[in-house]
Queue: 4 jobs
Job 1
Amino acid sequence: MHRTLQRQLRKHGLGPEHAPSADAWAAFVREVARSYDGHDEHRYLLQRAMEISAEEMRALAQSLASKNALLELEIQEHARTAAKLRYAATYDSLTGLPSRRALLDELAQRISLGARYAVLFLDLDDFKVINDSLGHEVGDHVLRGVADRLREALAPLDSLAPYASRLGGDEFVVLLRTVSDERSVLRAVERIRDAFTRPVVAGQQSFALSASVGMLIGKPEYLDAHDVLRDADTAMYRAKVSGKGRCAVFNDYMHAENLDRMRLIQDLWHGIERREFVLAYQPVIDATNGRLAAFETLLRWKHPTRGMVQPDNFIEVAEHSGAIVDIGRQAIDSACAQLAGWTRLGVLGDSVRVSVNISKRQMSEDGILDHIFDACARHRLSPERLILEVTESTVMADLERVSAVLDTARAHGCLVYMDDFGTGLSSISTLHRMPFDTVKIDRSFVRHVSTDRAHAAVVQSIVTLAHNLGLTVVAEGVEHLGQLAQLQACDCDFVQGYLFSRPLPVEDVPDWVAASDSAFKLDSIRDAA
Ligand code: C2E
Ligand code: CA
Ligand code: CA
């Protein structure tokens, strides 16, 4: 309460401690009124104050308004950016088709609605060739063409409510959102396949394309859109390995296989940690004098529950998952250690070599040579005692790079063998461009060499050509004396196979060497035939 007013109240005997009397109250009001009459100045100041603050308020409002306008612009800009981001997340910028994200959302919606849907997972065949040989620009052009073809093909299929999307790369997925019967899904596949019978034009060029299609019919068991895509992808992969332009329908069997594969991959990594991979040693014999020339090391997996697993059952998966890089390192290491040890103990003479198989994935790894030389140095083994076996498809995959790596290996003294010769793509005539010391004739030629004259002729011409190019020849998979005789007649330099020995567990090698008396009596083998 105002101090003057308090004073006046007290003066008139008014206040909380006094009971107000009507006279006192009237006197008080009169006096207050009088005192304010004489204080116009106060009233004036008060009014001014009010006016000033009103002006201030107006100014403030004005500045707020202009700030608001700026804010408004900022909000609009923000909304535009958000919309752009949303578009980028929902649409693929190259083809304008919905993206993986959008597809997953759409699929999740189908699942939550309990709708009957189907998924077609498309992957172009050999698109990588176009991209790699003609460049990304042409590749992009082709992908846009493919998207247009898809739109075209799906346009008349309204009843299936098709939703075409691009996952990335050359992978497209069509979600059929309302499916009444499976026949209509097959019709959609047919239409898509037909759409690719005309070549796709990109700039000046036109490309005959085909796609592998994985088909999946939705089931109530699917609760997660990712699982649906994964299984459709599996079916696509199946279609692809069966040939170009094929379609495969997903089934539970594939799912079980997928799980098996995943378990195998997990086991592989465990196996690396627990050092479950061991090498078997198969002798390679000099065909002219029966002497032991080398041991080829062959991987075996001592699995705690699967038993001894052969390479055909895990190499491909190890290669795919990358585990082969670590497994291979262990193999190189233990081959070098073994050979150095046997030589020190006098089990083997120091002309006997050891050969290791190097897969495609290992060859594309940067540190491979460092690792090999390092292993040799650590075990005090001359690199000259090491043979690297590489298949022709590994070389063909990246001719220049792999050739350079193999050249360096040879410069350090390693020998390089071309494995499985005759099964790959390269022709005999490209052999001279490749950095090999030796070709290993594939088992499939050796098998019939003594019974089929055509096979014998092929082997003969490979040997002749290799010799003309300064290469030596190993024949692998020699099981019978007849084969040996024929290979010797063809002038083959080295032989390897069950006839001499199966791949031996490491602990059996010293005994085998002792028993073979370091030279096979090839003549006596022949005489016995
Ligand atoms: P490869 O390099 O062609 O190995 C020769 C295969 O022929 C071996 O099979 C060997 O056991 C088998 N073999 C040898 N002599 C005969 C015979 O007289 N008759 C028959 N029928 N077969 C014979 P294995 O040990 O099952 O190896 C299979 C493949 O696994 C190898 O083919 C090689 O590609 C791969 N592999 C094996 N060890 C390694 C390794 O250490 N690293 C890599 N990257 N791959 C390996
Ligand atoms: Ca081999
Ligand atoms: Ca081979």
Job 2
Amino acid sequence: MPELHPTILVVEDEPPIAETIVYALRTEGYAPLWRTTGREALAVLVQQPVALVVLDIGLPDMSGFDVCREIRRHRAVPVIFLTARSAEVDRIVGLELGADDYLAKPFSPRELTARVRAVLRRMNGGPAAPGAPADGKWRHDAARCRISYRGRVLKLTRNEYRLLAALVAAPGRVFSRDQLMAAAWDDPGAAMDRTVDAHIKTLRAKLHAAVPDDDAIVTHRGLGYSLREET
Ligand code: CA
């Protein structure tokens, strides 16, 4: 099950805005954690599990874009950008930084909590109960966006995580490329079939690195992919 009070990291250097966000999140049952600089935010992410990051782009020490890039190197945690300038919106949308959503200032606290809820629901969603051991070999901790295979926690990019989460939710079920694309990409129309194949390839390599001699992903020619069922 997802955590009772998911930790939301709020990275914002303007106290009045941050306080409004923190208050709104707390009222909605989240556990907000407020940091004012990019460095402090990255330190938190190393120290503890965070369900989602609300990230201001204009920070005193580094830009939110760079913070996001740094986060993406290690974690699949979803990011919602806060921006004060419309020029930044173009960059968020255009740069494929892996932002899950963004809000332009000024925004209402209600707007923010609705976005947070929607992104978390999307992350935790899927046909099977999230977080449950889907199969003896697999463990999906949706609150931490973490999947382990035979006891090994896999280091996954955001799209790899979403893609594998879909497969893990239904071992044995054959997913078409379209279905996997819809599960893993925010804008499936922009991705191509090859993208799914490329991600399956890196997933296989990571699984192989974690547990050699165990091909967990099955290719169904002309149909798609499935996870090998426990026999
Ligand atoms: Ca700012």
Job 3
Amino acid sequence: MNQPQQQETRAPVNHRILVVEDEGEIRQLIRYNLEREGFTVEEAADGAAALARIRRRAPDLIVLDLMLPGMPGLELCRQVRADPEIASLPILVVTARGSEVDRVIGLEMGADDYVVKPFSPRELVARVRALLRRAGHATEPTSDGLYERGRLRIDFDTYQVWVEGERKALALREFELLRFFVQHPMRVYTREQLLDMVWGRDTFVEPRTVDVHVRRLRQHIERDDANPRLILTVRSVGYRFDPSALD
Ligand code: CA
């Protein structure tokens, strides 16, 4: 029998996606649509089971419903981001329609992107693909090497960051934002420019996402994130990175 045409357009790399959702029907719907695109899908019905699975063998991406019994989705998000071994795992959050608060908190807790229920399967798959494309850069070998200045040390090859010798658990996007700042010091960038250059064109996020990530990055690298010296806010324009504050 001939293989259907669709077979050839499937994902060349068999990415493993963990779907965390307690409602079986929705889990099946997500699974069906991801498998149709060639992804390998694993399932977890609650946060604790998901975390155990991730620690045993990390997937390439998590699709995480925020409404879960037991450990809430946001708590799972927080625990993933707090563990340096798995902190850069891409997380696509699923939230209820119109829950602005969930979206904002989700991004603050380290989610990389979100879809709002009810979502179209096409949208979900597009966002999964976009996140994996971004994350793919993290696993490609680079020759960017090491950045060391004052109390900040960044290994661009392994995506590790140390502040005063202590290893920090940065989400992938926080790392990319930090890299951009370090490589483009002193220049002022608008939120839109940062979205373009750090998030890329296949982005679905709003400019205020930049503020959320800057805030999280400041918590990692500033001495006092209430009085930032490294990532400076340039009022009504955007942000500027001043590495001299590291000395
Ligand atoms: Ca749910």
Job 4
Amino acid sequence: MLLPNCESYKIKMIEPIYQSTKEQRLQWLRDAKYNLFNLRSEQVFIDLLTDSGTGAMSDRQWAELMSGDESYAGSRSYYKLKDTIKDIFGFEYFLPTHQGRAAENVLFSCLVKAGDKVPGNAHFDTTKGHIEFRKATAIDCTIDEASDSTSVHPFKGNIDLIKLEQVLKSDSPENIPFIMLTITCNTFGGQPVSIENIRGVHKLSRKYGIPLFFDSARFAENAWFIHEREEEFRGKSIPEIVKEMYRYADGMTMSSKKDGIVNIGGFIGLRDEKLYKLASTFNIMFEGFNTYGGMAGRDMAALAQGLKEVIDKDYLDTRIRQVHYLGSLLTDEGIPVQQPIGGHAVFIDALKFLPHIKREEFVAQTLALEIYLEAGIRGVEIGALMADRDPVSRENRFPQMEMVRLAIPRRVYTNSHMDYIAAAIKNVYKRRESIRSGYRILNEAPILRHFTIELEKIPVIK
Ligand code: F0G
């Protein structure tokens, strides 16, 4: 008999979680102004808000915490991390930052100016935020298949090379500071980018003399998909695939809270010494001296260990198969989810789930709130609220898709939790026609509004 897949680790420490009643959740949502970011974590039973900084560290990572070197300058833990980054990604230069968006802030301070264009594959919201904050434009060149939740394209994070070349041709290289490739592409569902596509993007970047950077938050998950789906790499190890991916990158920004499997941290990896020196100045101003830059020594040591663990094939099998297990439970019930299932999350297609709710009433947010009400499960809206207003017209932007992301923290929940989540969403799906209205905005920030937005429920007119 073929042995089933099972976790490549066992549990050494647990944290209790608590159920609540529907009445409690209704009241908590009212108090939270219908913004799931405003809930206290005790009010959540299963937290799928994000896979960022929410993973469980291994016993070896905890051991590294104890041996961290907290020297202000020249910390041993810094050098341990530096060597690990060189080893895994091949970058000579690296700067630690407190998280991914800080890496973006430092790098973009060097490179992005007003009026610039930054093409990429659906930049993550903080990346887009940091570009737009500098009065530049993030241009999405993802392949069209990414916006069709039923398409089973194996690399839906890929860039459309024709769209990219049009952008590169449209302006002089001084106004296109770099191309940003996000691997995996979070916005479109944790979808991978193939090496073939990376090579194509690299070729264009060389043709037009524009550097290529990788937003690398989920680089190991991307490598796993390449291993599974790209013929050329079937027999290769994950570390070999990662090396091949990064051969084509001039640099990387990293949110270590994802595929670093740590609770906080980030970094920049670079090849160019001149850019490294320029970025160092901003790093010292915004983050801290170059050998800690916003991280404790112990956290750098735990990150070095996490980066080694995340490229272990057994770990990645466990991780991505769990996400796919949840995805298949939902798909089997006919619930519309982004296909194929991505690496870190299941994305529910809210426009198909609640087709009768008006887009102006924030369909994905409506669905995310219903899932919380049903069973205390917290997902996140990836839709019109997150898309922000157009920076020029100040009109609401309605992206092609409205999704609820159920992001699975690394090494935290078991497959019985996945069964529970699937049952809860099935219940919401069954009563979907009884959900009659969405929400309107009471208060919002000018940028990255979804974090702090306040909403009110629109009364149903009978
Ligand atoms: N890039 C990507 C692709 C991300 O998913 C994130 C964060 C960042 C950059 C920024 O990193 O949070 O460390 O500052 N994504 C989280 C999420 C917040 O929930 O997907 P950060």
